[in-house]
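Title: Prediction job returns without error message
Component: structure pipeline
Severity: low
Priority: P3
Assignee: unassigned

Description:
Job completed but the reporter wants confirmation the result is attached to the right record. Sequence as submitted:
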Amino acid sequence: MANQRNLVRILGMGYVIIFVVANIIGSGVYKKIAPMAAELQSPGWIIMAWIVAGIITLFGALSNAEVAGLLADTGGDFVYLKKIYNRFFAFLYGWSLFAVIQTATISSLAYVFTQSLNSIIPIPDIFPSLQNFSLGGVFFPFQDFGIKLVAISLILLLTIVNISGLKSGAGVSKFLFFMVCAGLLVIIVFGLNSPSAKPLNHIFDRTLSTGTVTISSFFTAMLAAFFAYQGWISVGFIGGEVKNPKKNIPRGIIIGTFIVIVVYLLANITYLSLLSIPQLTSINDSGNQIAAVEAVKSFWGNGGVLFISLLILVTTLGCTNASILTGARPYYAMSREHLFFSGIGRLNKKNVPGNSLLWQGIWASVLVLSGTFDQLTDMVVFAVFIFYGATSLGVIILRRRMPDAHRPYKVWGYPVVPVIYILFCIGLFINTFITRPREAAIGLVLILTGVPVYFLLQRRHQNKK
């Protein structure tokens, strides 16, 4: 029997903005400045890298907002790519999300949360005698098993919260959003006004002419910043549950992205006023220190370490929840189009895609056990820009194909803004193949594993007719 339930549009503009910000602000705001400092050796150039990465992100968001305004529906870019190109290309995007991109992101966030919790309340090791047990010498499921078990418990707990209803998941995100914003505001205000803070002209005075900055080093540093800006695109996934989505989603994407850019700039200016470049470089070299922790420690001591550790906990918790809530929607939309397993296209009694949420949680938990989620995201994240660039190219295609269609929002600076973002996506893709050919090749293979799955699903659907 066909499922007759429909998604309910209960999320207004405020929630769209919350989900944009919550999907972006994870661990990057606390730690990415250290590798950037090691690369650029200049406070001014670090801030410049954040600004340029923010502008490019905004260009992508502006381009995506026009497409969202025209085509907004549950599934986000899956829906857009299907309309602009074809079902096969859209499926590869959705398959990539489920196989690695979204699920590995959830795994990674949950793991960072648990590591932060472990620094406050030590988590006992479980099955230490099985630490060296491996599957093919590649996967070590029982390494740090205590931490992995807590991370899996977090994923499944948040999955259950979101299965219980959209309001439950959205309410958790709203609460955590305000806690994160308040915490970052406290760090910025107290940090910039602490006796140990250097004046702001220390950051901007003559620093653009110092260091040994090259185009390559600036681009590498900008990629670190760009990683921290990722996540805004996920809000399009919940298009079927947003009130007046063709207006609220474009506006929410733009406002939310702009808020994050401002927050990131203020936070990193604060870190630079409290820590020197040698200190930040040392933090990066240590491998187990976080820049924000050291910055707060400089003016609040050990009490500050506890505060920032709790804030990182809340931030990663909020980002994990937002990723789980939004991430399950594309698979639901794919299933409704007979492009994914049929059971995932059903809504539960709370009018949310419960099966989609459940299978997403199970696979993300498997990735936690594998311990390879960070490697997987490193291998595939570059390839997702193929799809991001394709969506921006869709602005140009749809302007030609549907010139008279009503567009609640038209991208500012057309066609320059989408073209710049498209060129950046192409440059990132090519640069990854040049600098990290092994990871790029494996990432592409992981995405292409969806090809046989696509034809299998198509054959099964044809046989049922």
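Comment from assignee: result matches the submitted record. The CA atoms of residues 125 and 146 lie 5 Å apart.
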